[in-house]
Structures are given as C-alpha cells and as structure tokens.
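Order emerges. As here.
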Amino acid sequence: MIRRLIWNAIAAALLTCFMPPLLELTTFEHLWSFLPMLFLPLLLSHLARRYFLLGSLAGLLLSFYLILTPGSAPWGIFTEISSDIRSVINGELPGRPAFTLSIGLISFLIAYLARRTFPNRGFVFGLAFGVIGFIAYCDTWTDYSGETFILYPIILSLVLLYATEVNERPRASYVRPLSALFIMGAVIVVAVQSPVINATWQDSWYDLTSGLEGEGEPTNAIQKVGYGNNDEQLGGPFQMDDREVFQVESEGNRYWRVETKDIYTGKGWILSESNPEIDGRGFFSTFGTEVKTREETATFEMARELPFVPYNGDNVRVEVNQQRQNVLVDLENQKISYLDEADRQRDYSYPLFTEEQLQTDEPVNLSENETERYLQLPEGLPQRVRDLANQIVENKKTPWDKARAIENYFEEENFEYNTEDVAVPKENQDYVDQFLFETKLGYCDNFSTSATVLLRAAGLPARWVKGFTGGESDVIGAAVTSYTVRNKNAHSWVEVYIEGPGWVPLEPTVSFDGVGQYTIDRETNNETEQANPQRETEDNTETTTPNRPQENLLDEEQTTSTGQTEQKSIPFWPIFLTALALLFLYLFRKPIIRTLAILFFRRQIERPEGFRRMYRYLLRRLDKKGFHYQDGRTLAELAYEVDGYYETYAMRPLTDAYERMVYGGESLSVEKKREYFENIIRYVEG
C-alpha cells in the first residue's frame, strides 16, 4: 500500500510538470491552486472506488474554488463554470472557468486510467511522452523556455519506469535500483554539463517539406536569419534566408513590430515580466495624446502559421471578414499573439510627429517602475561605455538631439555592417563594449543593442525592439502596395522615450534608412508636407541585406561557440531518424522479440533438438524475468510458479513434454507444443 502510494505521488508530480509552461502562456498565476485537482485523483487512484471518486471530487472542487472564486461563496464556482460553458456553446472563446474545468477532467481521466493499469510501462510511457512532448512544443513554438525544467519530468519518468520493473518482476534485486540510480545520475550529469548548441531543431520538418516542394534543400550552417524568442546570447555570423514569412498589403513601406525587451544582461536581452491578457485590441499607449495619427489598414497573408502578430503603431485591431477578433495582449513587452487563424486584416494608428513635438525639453514623466526598467544597465557594464555616451551627447540640448546624435554615431564613425565576421563575446566580455571599442562591425543586433545601452547611459529611457522591415514591394495601386516579407527581413531597432511624443523609433543600423517607422509633419506654404526623417543612404539595401540572425521560429539554425574557428554542421535528419529507429526498437522490443522467437522456433519444434533449444531459450528468458530454475527447484516446480504468476496453463505441459523427451515416454504433438510455446512467450515478452 505504501509503495503504491509513493508511485502514485511521483506520477502526480510528473503530471504536474505540464503546468509551468501553461501558466507562463496563460493568465493563470499560481501553480499551488491547481495541485489539489492534479494530485488527489492520482494519489487516491488505488483505493476503493467510493474513496477514489470522493477524493477526486474534493480535489476538483477545492482547485475550482482557489482558482475561480477565492474568498467568495464556494457555490459561486458552479455559476462561473456554467456561464462560461454556455458562452463556449454560443461560439465564444473559452475563459478561465472552462479552461480550468478541462484541466480537471484531464486529471481525473488520467487518474482513472492509472487506477485500471498503473504501475504499467504503457501508462508511464504515455504520460511521460505527453508531458515532455508538451514542454518541448511550448519551448519550440512559444515564448516559454523549458531548457532546464524539462530535466525534472525526465527524472520522474525514469523513477516511474523503475517502479514498473519492481511491480512486474516477481523477485527483488539490488541490481535494479543501483542501475536505475546510475542511469538517472548519468542523465543529470550529461544534461547539466553538456555544452549547449542553440536552436538547431526549430523547424526541421518545414525544411524537409519545403525541399520536397521545390523551395530548396535545407542547409545546416552557422545561423540563418529569422525571427526567434531567445535573445539571451547575441553575436556570431549567419546566413541569408529568402523564404517567405508573410505578404502584406499596406499604405506604405512599414516596419512591423513584434515585441520589445527591457533587461540588458551584458550578453543579450531578456524580459523582466510577462502578463498576457485576452483582449479585442492591442493598445499600448505608445505615443503621446497630442501626437496626430493616421488610421491605416494592412491585410496579411501568412506563408505559415506564426505565434505572434506583426503590427505597426499602436491601437491595433485585428479583424477577419470585418469581425473584430480577440488576441492575447502582453502590455509588458507590447506583444500580440494569435488565438486562432492567422490570415487577417489589421487596423492601426500610424504616428505623424511634428518637429516642435520632438524638440521638446520637458522632463520625463514615466512611472517609477517604467523609469527603472528603461534605464536599466548591468552593474558590470564597462565605464568606458558610459563615458562614450556622455561624450556623444555633449553640447546637445534636447533629448531628441541627444537621441539623434547616438543614432548617427555609428555611421559618422564608419562602423561596418557585416554578417560574416561577427564575433561572439568571451565569457567575461560585454557584448556592447566589444562592438563599440574592438570589432566595430556587425549587424542590426549589434547596432540596436549598442544604441539602446548608449541612450540609457545618457539618461534617456530606451527599449529594444524586434520585428521585420517592410520587405520587397510590388505596386498594385495608387495608395496600397503589396510587400513580401521574408526571413531575411527579421530586424531589431530601438525606441527612445521623449516626453510628449512618447516612444519614438530610431534606426541606428548603418545601411538602413528606417523608412516606415514614423512620419514628420512639416508646414510648408500653409500646406502639410509629410516626410520620413530617417537617415538617407546611397542605395537602399533593405530588401537585399539580411537583417538579423536569431533562434528562428520559422527555420532551423546553428549558432557558433566562443573561439570556434571552423564551423561544422550537425547532420540533423540522419541523427533524428537513427534515434527514432532506436526508440522504436526499444519501445517495441518485447513484441519484436516475441514475434522473432515464434517465427524462429515454429519449424524447429518439429525436431527433438529444436524443441530442446526452444525450451532452453524459454528458461533463459524466464531467468531474466526473475524465475531462476537453478535455485534448488525442479523444472516442474518452476513451471508451476510461472503458470501461477501469469495465470495460464502452458509452462507445465511444455515442461512435462521436455522431461518425457529427455527421459523417454510419450510426448505432446507438434501442434500442442507450438500452441503452448506461443502462449507462454506472449506472457513472458509482454
């Protein structure tokens, strides 16, 4: 009883491992409120039915109360759930009550399955693959990073597999627990100590299918340009990728934002917090109340499904067939995510700043939390970076003049745009410091990150922005142009906060002119002239120059490691298919062994020597299962124990036939021998 209770608790802990990524991707806040519904059904699954059902119901109701109506009357949970279910039936999206109810039903069904089968290897494999697969899916296709956390369900799965071995074998041995501990220890050591190779498996299935569709063979190279989530380690060379991400019909060439990040670590960027909520409008108050905006419309056609919404400006509304759609809005990083289908029409407010607004000298009026976030710099930032920032803005009067001075610094100092010879910072080296004072060459990540850090060092609130540039144009009308945006158009830039105008985009990357970020209204002869104020370049390389490498959500890539002089590719598909084949052979080893044994001995049983070989093979297989015939027992006693354990009548007649063959006497027919052998081998090999 105690042992089964321990196994049930470990199974419940494994089931709970699917919740952390779910909590990060939804509006739920605490794991502990889900624990009663996740633990109690599995924990009590081995008890009598009435105790199991009552305990499961109590766990579900307690979790519903803690999640949906904490501090209120308990019976309010039924009103919440029934109201949300009616909304779902009427075609609306499910809310917290329906979602919580779904998790509770899943937990109960898994517990009921465990009651009927567990401890059983099939149950453990199903639960482990479900949980680990869900974490891997969230890590690959969403903002959740499960690189460290996925180790816990792996360890719990190994423990449960050992539990099934203990349960299924009739005798205990010190070899099994020592082997299990050794395997778990090896897995932990390898997982912790192995070097990390960033993002090589992000979309390999797309690579394979695109090759079959004639879009070109996938290449395993240094990195490929594209959009991704992980910006913790920037740097290293990359390759251009021309594959299409989406097409957009818009009223001009626009930068398409995806998200911002606020914490610079010295190596890259992370987000301080994330609290997404479902809403019908992505409104981030990006611009000041006195800034004029022009309502624009963009129609998107996605080449493949994206987890995010590219947009411009603020006050974003997403529509399908003129019906406004709910989206997942994260106000902390200004990110919008789809909830269902992807091809949509997008309305947004495009800013029209005036020179008078930009040249204001009003003090910044951000909240204390926002000021701390957008002026954050790591303690280890070299002093010469701060000194350089003060030197650049020296003698500049207004915040806008200071920001433009930093924006133009890289071009004035002849920094080079380069995608091939870009270094990765050493372990104790700051990413920005290396770029500003040593290499002075790189791509948009180097320029945008350095500009953001310099702005903050100069006392100007700034944030790092990721998204796409406008892409390749194909004029289809006087006011509307179609653009094709590809992986190579993934880009990063910077926004600076000016009191009055609000968050104003800057384009510090040399060879990019920043057209499509915003427009300045200028009064000329009593008429308004709209002009793009960004820097002009000799030739527009926006559509021919790759923008930024990343952990590409749309493609596979491979980053370099520090000090690596020769880049080597990893042949993914041969390794993956080999691993898949080995996994298949391992999972189905018993039916494979059983089938091969039946086929091999089917004819040999007809001869005495073949029957003797078959019986000895059967004894060896039974010995591995814990039935040791050399422990002073006769073959007849062993056969009686085997038939009793497997609740069959097969081993005794086979043993009797074997002894008759050895000592003389009438034996079984060939058909009976074959029947009994196939019967017992099916039990022995699962």
The mean pLDDT is 76. Residues 436 and 656 are 87 Å apart (CA to CA). The first strand starts at residue 244 and ends at 250.
